[in-house]
Amino acid sequence: MIKPTPNPPVRLFTVADGISTEDLLVNLSETLASANALSCDIAFNLEGASREELLGVAQLIELAQLLADRVHDGVGQPTASVS
Question: How many other C-beta atoms can be found within 10 angstroms of the C-beta atom of residue 38?
Fold first, then answer.
């Protein structure tokens, strides 16, 4: 019998328990910065649609970086209520 859905992939990487939110956010920011640098370096060696697509990916990475930075800035601060 053929299964309708495949088994989920085995995870190769995990995050250790007990790491602080701030440390996780710092590592997230460093990872995003590396991904952005790689995508920009590769994009500038391309031309046409491929370059534009990869620069679009770089913009998404930058957006994720801004979101991570905002969360990191707010760690440990009370959340403001919106009226």
Answer: 13
